[in-house]
Every structure is written in C-alpha cells, then in structure tokens.
Amino acid sequence: MRTVSIVNVTSYTALELLRLLNQHPKFLVTSVTGRSAVGKRLEGIFPQLHAVLPPPGREVPAVDPALVITEEPAQTDLAFVCLPHAAAAELAVSLLKRGIKVVDLSADFRLRDASVYEEWYKHKHPAPALLETAVYGLCERYRERVRTASLVANPGCHTTTSILALAPAMAGGIVGPNVIINSITGISGGGRTPSLSYHYSEANEDAHAYSLEGHRHMPEIVQELEAVAEAGGHPVKGGLRLTFVPHIAPMTRGILATCYADLLEDEHGRLPTSEEIRSFYRQYYVNEPFVHIVERPPHTKWAYGSNHCFIYPIVDGRTNRLIVISCLDNLIKGASGQAIQNANLLCGLPETMGLAGLGVNP
Amino acid sequence: MRTVSIVNVTSYTALELLRLLNQHPKFLVTSVTGRSAVGKRLEGIFPQLHAVLPPPGREVPAVDPALVITEEPAQTDLAFVCLPHAAAAELAVSLLKRGIKVVDLSADFRLRDASVYEEWYKHKHPAPALLETAVYGLCERYRERVRTASLVANPGCHTTTSILALAPAMAGGIVGPNVIINSITGISGGGRTPSLSYHYSEANEDAHAYSLEGHRHMPEIVQELEAVAEAGGHPVKGGLRLTFVPHIAPMTRGILATCYADLLEDEHGRLPTSEEIRSFYRQYYVNEPFVHIVERPPHTKWAYGSNHCFIYPIVDGRTNRLIVISCLDNLIKGASGQAIQNANLLCGLPETMGLAGLGVNP
Amino acid sequence: MRTVSIVNVTSYTALELLRLLNQHPKFLVTSVTGRSAVGKRLEGIFPQLHAVLPPPGREVPAVDPALVITEEPAQTDLAFVCLPHAAAAELAVSLLKRGIKVVDLSADFRLRDASVYEEWYKHKHPAPALLETAVYGLCERYRERVRTASLVANPGCHTTTSILALAPAMAGGIVGPNVIINSITGISGGGRTPSLSYHYSEANEDAHAYSLEGHRHMPEIVQELEAVAEAGGHPVKGGLRLTFVPHIAPMTRGILATCYADLLEDEHGRLPTSEEIRSFYRQYYVNEPFVHIVERPPHTKWAYGSNHCFIYPIVDGRTNRLIVISCLDNLIKGASGQAIQNANLLCGLPETMGLAGLGVNP
Amino acid sequence: MRTVSIVNVTSYTALELLRLLNQHPKFLVTSVTGRSAVGKRLEGIFPQLHAVLPPPGREVPAVDPALVITEEPAQTDLAFVCLPHAAAAELAVSLLKRGIKVVDLSADFRLRDASVYEEWYKHKHPAPALLETAVYGLCERYRERVRTASLVANPGCHTTTSILALAPAMAGGIVGPNVIINSITGISGGGRTPSLSYHYSEANEDAHAYSLEGHRHMPEIVQELEAVAEAGGHPVKGGLRLTFVPHIAPMTRGILATCYADLLEDEHGRLPTSEEIRSFYRQYYVNEPFVHIVERPPHTKWAYGSNHCFIYPIVDGRTNRLIVISCLDNLIKGASGQAIQNANLLCGLPETMGLAGLGVNP
Question: Which residues of D are catalytic?
C-alpha cells in the first residue's frame, strides 16, 4: 500500500483524484491540504464523500471523509500537486527534498525551456533546475521515463487531446507544418473558483471562443508535436505553424479537438486515404489501453467519467486535408486520471490500475 | 465466476448494467438479446464499449464488445430482464423453468396483488402464480428473502427514492397517514426510445409535472409504506392517503423526492425535533452501505453515477410537518445498480460488490 | 414619452428591464446607476446591447448602449429599483421626495407589517412610514390601487407563481388552511453575483431543495393568500398552515409551483370536480391578459422570455386534494415584466404595453 | 395588412415564425398547413400560443391559436414554406402560379446550378426553371434583388453565419483560397422530429462533429463566398479550398462559426493588423442593422432569441492567419427571422419590422 497526499484538495482535479483513488487497490490518501479550508474535515467540503466504501479486496476505504485538511502535506510516498502554477513548482522543490515523488498537475514543469515558460506565464520559473529531470507525463509517449522519474509534469487537457490526435500523423510524416486545432471544452476545465464566466446563467446555452490572443496550452502542444515528429524521423522544417482556438460549450465535462493539417504526398506522389490513415493510427496505438481509434466521429460523452480517449482521423478529399477528431474527459485523461496513470508508473504498479471504468452513459 | 444475460440490451438500464458489470469481479456477461438489433455486435449499438478493460484481478473484461445480440437469452446463471412490463413476466416464466435466476427490472412482479396490477397496467397479469414467490428487491427491506429467491422484482426509481425517505418515519409511527410526495426526476428515466417529450430542444430549459392522473409507481409506494408501517408496529389506519406528483427537470440523471407528512405526538403529547428524527433515521440505516443521512439538503449530483442514496429529514416547526428529502441516481440505485445489488445477494456474493464507486462530481 | 432610470443596472432584473424597455413604445431609459461600474458605458457591461434598434414607430432606441453608469439616479418620471433589500428602501425614500415614482423590485415594501419584515430580514425596516402607501404590485389583484400609487412593491418570483395558483381557490373557499407549495426554480433567480452554488459545474445536472428553515417569500405568500381569502368572503380560520419548499433545477429561467391543499365540501357535502374547478379558475382570470388556465400540466418553457403565467388545477380523487400547478418566467412575470406592467399602470399606459411577446420556444 | 400562410407549421422554423409574426405590425397569419396535423387547431400543437396578445397598435393578434391546420395553403399574399427539400420546390411552383410570393426556408433554390444541387441532394431538381428567378435571400448581399423578387431562397444557418463572417475578407481580397470553417451549432437546427441523436439523454453533456463526409451547406458557402470575392474584384483563383466541419453542442439555440484563412500581403508586402481588419469589417457592415462587429469574442447567447449576428475578426500574428468568429441564433437570423426580413423586403415594408428585439439574456 502506498500513501499519497493531495495538495490543494478543494479543487476539482483533487475531487476527481479522491473519487478515483477511493476505488484504487493500492493507494491510501493520508494527507490533504488546502489553505482556505485548513482544520476542516474533507466531508465538510465535499459531503458526497460520506458515501465512501472500501474497494474490492480491502477492509477500509482509501479515502477517509473525516481526514482533517492541513496547511502542509505530511510525509507520504507520493504527492499530487493541484496548486496553480508557480506555487506548484515551489512546493515541488521541498517535496522532492523530502523524498516524496511528485505528480504536478500544474503547468510548471511541462515546458522544457524556462524562457518559453516565462514568455507565456509572465514570471520567472521558480525552479528551473528541475526542468531537466521532470518528465512530461503523457504516458503514451514517455512511460518508460516516467517509471524511473521522481517528478512528473502532468499534461494539460487541451494538450493531451491534441497531441494524441496528431502524434501519429506527425510521427509518420503524413502532414505538413500548417496545423489548426479547434477545441471545444466543458466548463469544469475552468476550475472550482466562482466567476462570472462560469456562472450558470451566463454559461448555460452559450458557446464562445476564448484566449484568441494565445492560450497557454499552445507552446506545450508545439513542443510535443515537434518532438514526436523529430522522433519519428520527420522533423518539422521551420517549426509547426499552429493556430489553436479553444471554445467553451455548455457542459460540465468533455473536451474535443478538431485538428486540420495538409496531407503530404508520399515518394510516389500519392496521398493516403482515410482507410490507410485509420489503419496507421490503429497500429500506432495498438497497445494503448486508453486510446481508441473509432469508425465514426466520437462523442465527448463516450468518455464521460472515464480515462479513455477516442480518436477519428478522416481525409477531406476535396482539399487534401487531414481532419482528426479526438475527445476525452478533461478532468480524467485530461487531468486526474492521467495523474493516477503516472502515479501507477512511478510506483511500479500496473498502469491501468484503478482506471478501468467505462464512461458513464447516457 | 457467474454468467449472466441481459435481456433487451438496447435500453438505458442495460447500458448501465454493462458499465457496472464490466468492473464487477465475479460476473461475466455471456448473452445479450434485443429484438431490434439481432445479429449486431454490442459495440455496433454502443461504440463507447470499445474501451472495455479487465477489472482488477482479471485477465479479460467482463463485457465483450464483440458479443453478438441474439433473439433469445442463452443459458446463464442469472438474467437481468430489461423488457417493458407484460413482456418481462412472460419471459421470466420460461427463464425460471430453465433454472435461470431472474432480476426483473420491469414492474411486473412489484405489486403483490394481481388485481391492483391490472387496475394500473390495464391488462391481465401474465404470470400471477409467480407473485407468491417473487421478492420485492428493495435490499434495505428484504435482503434476507432475496438471498434465497429465484425471482426478484427490482423496484422503480421513484419508488426506491420515496420508500427509503419515508420508511423510518412509517416504521417508527412518527407520522400520520396524510402523505404528499413531490418528485423531480431526470430525463433518462423515460428510456432510450426517442419521443417529442424527450427531444432535446423540448426538454432543455423546461420543468413540468406529469402523470397527474396517477403514476404507476404510486401503488408500489403505498404497498411498501403500509407494509413497513405494519412491520414496525404502527399500521396505517384507513390506509395511506398518498398524493404523488412526479416532475421532470432538464438533467439526464438524478431523482429527488420531497416528502411531506404530519407529525404525530408521542404518548406525552410531544412532537419530535429535527435532531431527534435525524438521529432516529441515522440509527435506522446505521448498517446500510448505500443509504446516508446527511446534515443538509442533498443534491442529486452527489449520487450521479453511483449506487448511493442521500436522505435529509427536517421538521417544519410552523406546521408540525415532517419534510424528508431523498435523492439518488435513477439509473443506478433506482434501476441497474440496485439490480446488481440484488444479483449479488441471489448469487451469494457480498452485497456491495462492484457497486462501491462514488458519485462522479462535478 | 416617459423617462425612467434603472438603479443597480448590473443585475439580471435590470438587464431584463433593458431588453423589454428597448421594445417599449413609451419609455426612454435616461439614467442607469451601479456602484461597481460607475463611469462605464452600458455596453461595456452588456456587449449584447450593441444590437439595440428602435422599436416600431420610433426613430431612436429606448436604450442607449453608450449611456454612462452613474452613482446616483438622475431626475426621471419613474425609477426601477433593483437594489438588495434595505438599500432599496433607503433609496426609495429619497426618490419619492424628488417626485419620482418607484417600482421597487426588492422585498422592502412587500410585507405590510414591519415586525414581520424584521423577523424575516433580520434588521429594522428602513422606512416603515412608507408601508402604508406602498401598493403590492400584483396587478391581477391590485391594479386599481397601483394606478394611483407612487410606490409599488414588485412581488417576488416564488410569490407571484404561488399566489396566482391559489388565489381563486382561496377566494372561492374551495380549500382548507392546510397548504403545501413545492416550487422548482431556475438559477437566474439567484442573481448575477458568482458563487459556488451557481457555479456551472456545481449547478448543472443537479436538483436540490433549499431554504428548508424558511424562505423569505413565505410570509409574503401567507399575507396575500389570507388577504385574498378574506376579500372573497372565506377568511382562513386560524391562519394558513403553509409549508413552502423551493428547489433549484438546472435551467436558467422558469419557475413552477406545485400546490397542494385539502378540498372542502360545499354546503351539500359535495366535493368539486376537476372540470368545475378549472371552469371556476377560467372565469376568475377571464379578463387577465397574462394568466392562462390550460388543459394539461404546463411547461416552464412555454413562458420562457414572456410575461405569461400558465395554470393547471386538478383534483386528486383518491385523497380529495386540490393540486394546482403554475409556472412563469421568474425574470419576467416574476420580476422585470411585472415591474413594467406596474410601471405602465403608474404612468397611465395600457397595462400590456411592451409585454405582448410570446415565449421563446423551443 | 398582408396575409401570410405557413406551410408545414409543425416544424420549429414555423413555430418561430408564429412567435415573431405575432408581434409584427403588418402581417396576419391566415393559413397554416401540416400533413400530420390536418384538422387540429394550432393551439392543439403548440399550447403556448394560448398566450397571444395583439401587437402594439392592433386590436387582434396576428396569430389566431384557434386557426385550423389544413392540407393546402389558402390564398395569401405570401407563403413561408417550411417543408423539406424537394417537397418545397414542388409546392413553390404552384404557389407562384397562384400569385403568392414565396419565402422558401428549404435548400431547394439556394444553389444556382441544378447539377450541384443533384450532386449534394441526390435527386433531380424538381423545378430547375425557377433557379433563374429565385433570389438568394441573404439580405446583406441581395436586398435590392429581393425587393422585386417573387421567390426567395432563405439561406441555411451554417451558411448565413459563415458568409457574414468571411464576406468582407473575401470582398476585400484580404485572404487567400485556403479556408477552414469550424462550426458549433445548437440542437434545434436538427428540427422537431424525434431521433436518437437529438434525444435529451444522448445530446446532453455531449459535443461531437458530424457530416465529416461533407455537409450540404458547404456548396452554398462556396458559391456565395466565390461570388462575393468576384463582386469585390478579388476572384478566387482556382476556386475556394474550403473544409467545413460542423459540430453539435448541448444547447437548444445558437450557432458559432470559427473561420480560418491565410492573410495575403498587400502590394507593399504588408500584412494587415487586427485593428485594420476590424475597422474594414466595421465599415463593410456600417449600415447593417443586424450585423455587429464586436471588440471581443462573441457569445452565441448574446443573439439568443434575436435576429442579430455578432462578428469578431482577429489576426493570429504567429501564423499570419485571419480568424473570424461569427454567431447568431440559428432559428432566427439563421432561419425564421431572416425569412421575415426577406418577407418585409418582398412586401415593401421596412426591413427590420418585427425583428428589433434584443437577445434574451441571461
């Protein structure tokens, strides 16, 4: 049994960690922190935790609703850090010193280059020395490195959806450098802090684009897609020309990326068909438990409440463009589920442990 | 490992059974039927089943997405019957003859009196002889009988919510015979067959009452509340005077019953306080894994995706009325989760097996 | 042309006033106030006002999106006060002194008895002297008094829905003093200030009851129902025994009250039928432009975006209870539409002017 | 006063016509048809019509809820045809022969080339001779022609949103031929006929792309964007290379197009800035009452229930792409509101008559 702490437990990613960990056979939550709620019991914040039951094969639940929220995390085997950026990096330094493995759900260790971080996050990186050893926690790409790491940078939700969608095409040299990603996300991605944007009466029956001046997940997507292209032997000459426009739709969970790129001809001047690309994608992800190539445009709801990602590539024959649609639950494969996937690897457990649930449908 | 079949697999209760069973350690779905889809593979109907993974400790998933839908159920240890009423009873007869245990999710075996059934369902009962041996599958009331039964009548969603809310008050003789139950349900309770009432553009942003002339769950509630009062030594003289008005609100899942009844004075002419009643309720359900007495009005969302029920009793001091609010997920504790709870009992397994998940929040 | 000011223009009731007044032929908005937004232009707060167009027969729009928000209301013929209680009464005093007619959307002048006000609002009434002259602005009841008033207390949303539902039954002596009102409201009733309760991810897919300890609309309902019974020659002996439980459902607009009361026998020991009661209700409201007795349970959506109220009474023959269901748009007939209805009367204009729109469906 | 008939009155576009016409000062609905509902009264289908009131300055409402639905349209000045394609063209022929002006809300007369129509709609055009005289009813483009026409092809919802977004850029030669339009629409666009796709429990909390093989609004967009470019003196060499991917989000109304195109350098090798483009757009639409260039990404909700369209162009400086976001209410400016705008022009009335309402917010 491994002990874990959850830092900033009053967030949605923390709540989702609690739900998932409660059914995990090998983790025990022994410490929870949260500045605004110090001294309160967990069930005071989340009354739905009254209902914890032990997972199969265990006597006690993995989460104790009577656990008291503290200011500082106790000594545990691993910590999930759900703090905002900057604060996360600062805490990570001290946790690592105490020998605690860290899965950081913030953006602090996702960008390899501290100057890119500073450009997008508008402050100096609090722990640039750790950028070397931090592993980008997209398990489908870096699972071997994660196994031996002590600090994992859990990817963002837009990023995970987009990279999984385009990685095969970039790795296979199927498309050129002109890429547009149009993303639709549910509202829980905006977090648990009330604001007018996420006020029910504003957000219900509304769709709109945001971050048109540049969304912080963009450099993360560029970094990883260029890396996967390079690794596949098809480096992007001149760099990726990515436009990324996220949208909000009136739903709690779910994220869907529709990606557009120009198909490249092969050495015989031939363009691939939808079937060939789908088959290539299927092969690329053949051993992935959480990535599924499907035969029709996927629905975000299929993934609701699960760690799964559904991907559908198709060729637009009129324009020779590749369209790839990818979707998942932003709070799970896009955050807390992926964090547990990383924690499993960090702790030498089976990668899918505690994450095998299907989407809650309808 | 027990084999099970799901009859009428294209329904929402069946889809929810598939999701829950997929994580159940001891059941294996080996047969699925569905008239409109005979010959199709399960994943042809529900593409989200692509994502099945084995539950903890198993090599293969409990649900095979490639399973072919047949007309007749194969020989299995147990069958979940998700047919409409009348059709369900007819099939149950033959299943029982083949030695297959039956959890019937229809209304056919819920009412003990065939003439009451005929009054409400407007046709002769197809198998009145079975009414004797059928057990009403509200585990909190009848779990001992379920253990040795072969046919279980799985309660309705409004019924489960209402009975769990009022059973302690009736058993304890706390309230009189005048009862009003005002229920709010999500739309999935209406099933998977498209109709104008459940058409998104009609149902979104809309609340309304329905079945004002009398909802079929009403006699079921009366039967069980009178029985629990009788069993508690406080029979309802003259019978329960119940008004039950269900409403639909624009949400997929969730059901919430707000119950009103007149408080009775005790032998000293004293009326109980909210605290006394809450304590009595807590004691009444002290050993129930799925029923939780809470300290503030519960939210349907707390139960979303789980088998849990949350109950909040409070006294209206101005009028000496008891108000009890109860909520759960209509497709789980109100249908498929409770069906698995019954199946566990029928098969000698721990009652909570495969059902320990928390609500998916937010 | 009458000039009007809107006080606390950053609220939802103010936004709805702006929308409705923009199509009103005889009002011109010349002053808007709002502490948090002083100095900003109206369109800076509500960009959707870019789209104002003149109403039929006018050259300029009634609302100017470039109007600058001030701290104090300018001199106008009438003011709509959208402030919270207490603040509203204080301002009303000074507005009336300046000769400005006031439609107060707060609760400050709804209760005739200052001590009842203090019991429910937990502070001394700021202007008890005005309680004498203030008219309760339920036009269906008090339109003649409103015509000659200078201060109108615009009723609450739960209140309007409930009183319109039960007024005929109370006036006609059809029911006894035991009344239960179970209300379901959309979320916009909670206002525009962000909070966790109205955070999209919390409120979506959720239903729950609130204010179980007593909602402030309750004494207002009691006061008016007792008054209508008295006026109808059927005073409620011993006072109304009202239990009122409001619920929130996941929708922006709409409020629906389901009311339960015991039918009284007439002098011949006879109970009325549904048809008789419906006919009595139809007669009672025969000249009302905004109240409609319908033949089946009404949907909140029918009223969405309109000033209409739909009412459906039916007898529960099993228990001899009257059930009355009533619904409307909480922001219009339950707030801003009714405020304009009152303003029309105060200004000698046709009562329906600017309010004839149908519900926006689907 | 002009008389109008509405053909296929049981559709959502017809319901929206009824709502809007009810407040129109110069139209009177005297005939409604609908095969499935012949002999029924209008209020039997739409009970919300109980609430009709006369518009300002009129004695009787423009819509009579007691109007009986017939099989054939009566003689009127104008007919709104809400039939599916093919059926619409057939009826239009006979209506025009009877001297009735026609606003056709179907796709039958939108494409100028009968062979393109046959390619996309998979059947022979029923009235190719009328294609010459039919006018494409995008008033912002063709209002002069509409004034003298007898048959107007009312544009589709995706089309209106997209063309209004890109017309200035194409007319001004600002962008090249590579265009991607990513559209998000509400569910009412799918009509009133129940189906699993629009079943509440399926559609709620779900986003997905559809018509990936090619949506029928695409050739319409291409035809009109190429025409506007040509008319602006910047013909698209080689034709537009358009990829159009529509998505469905869980909301009843609202459509939002996010359009991507490559910026062209001017004769001095300079690229335009966001400010320059916004100013050019503002000038282009300076006299349009329903098209508004806004300063931040628009929300579909701003347009909810109104005939307005909000547009936001911005340059992606990293990639030299133009992004234009455009949104409106799919049932109004995308269907019935635009139909009335056309009917106004056809009948010599002010174009904005009956359409000046603001969006219903929140």
Answer: 157
Cα angle for residues B294, B299, B303 (degrees, 5° grid)? 85
Chain D residues close to B201, C-beta within 8 Å: 12, 187-188, 190, 192, 198, 252
CA D205 to chain B, closest CA, distance in angstroms equals: 9
Please, which residues bridge with residue D81 across strands?
Answer: D7, D104
Looking at the complex, does the CB of residue C362 fall below 8 Å from at least one CB of chain D?
Answer: yes
Token pair listed for A147: 């196994």
* Known catalytic membership, residue B157: yes
Q: Which residues contact C166 (CB under 8 A, 6 or more apart)?
A: C175, C179, C181, C225, C259, C261, C324
Contact present, D69 and D33 (Cβ < 8 Å): yes
Q: Cβ of C144 under 8 Å from any chain B Cβ?
A: no
Dihedral angle sign, alpha carbons of residues D78, D79, D80, D85: negative
Min Cα distance C55 → chain D (Å) is 6
Say how many CB pairs under 8 Å bridge B and D: 56
**Cβ contacts (< 8 Å) between A360 and chain C: which residues?**
none
**Residue C112: partners with Cβ closer than 8 Å, 6 or more residues away:** C131, C136, C223
Q: Token digits for D229?
A: 């470019």
For A244, nearest residue in chain D (alpha carbons): D316
ipTM confidence: 0.96
pLDDT in tens, chain D (362 residues): 999 999 999 999 999 999 999 999 999 999 999 999 999 999 999 999 989 998 777 888 899 999 999 999 999 999 999 999 999 999 999 999 999 999 999 999 999 999 999 999 999 999 999 999 999 999 999 999 999 999 999 999 999 999 999 999 999 999 999 999 999 999 999 999 999 999 999 999 999 999 999 999 999 999 999 999 999 999 999 999 999 999 999 999 999 999 999 999 998 999 999 999 999 999 999 999 999 999 999 999 999 999 999 999 999 999 999 999 999 999 999 999 999 999 999 999 999 999 999 999 99
- DSSP letter for each residue of A155-215: PPHHHHHHHHHHHHHHHTT-EEEEEEEEEEE-GGGG-SS--GGGBHHHHTT--EE--TT--
Where would I find the H helices in chain B?
12-22, 42-45, 87-97, 114-121, 139-147, 157-171, 200-203, 217-231, 274-284, 300-303, 337-346
What 3-state DSSP class applies to D78? strand
pTM (2 d.p.): 0.97
Cα–chain center distance at A362: 23
